[in-house]
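Exercise 7.
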Amino acid sequence: MSEPTRILIVDDDPQFREIVRLVLRRAPDFEFVGEAGDGQAGVEAVERLRPDVVLLDLMMPVVDGFAALPMIRAAHPDAAVIILTALDAEEAAEGMLLGAAGFVEKRHIADRLESLVRVCAEVRQNG
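Solution. The predicted structure, written as tokens, is:
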């Protein structure tokens, strides 16, 4: 059996972080290693926890996701970063240019997030 996929959630809304955990909790091969409420805390958590997948909101206080994404990629280039956004796809595409592996609109996490995390984890493991 392979190691579980280690996930870090970075979003300023604690209720939304709980929803993400509930959506992904049904997957036995996912492990939540931490969470952060702003981009700066997210970068620090990535450096400390070394997650496989980072779920990153774009609009946050202190340091937003647009600024945090390149710092996360520099701190841990092997981590797959998935953008969670309430913004439209065009704005989320900016995050893709900064090195995100994918994005999910927050309103679609129940049906799309688990499969995207799984694909990113497989790509990361297989190289």
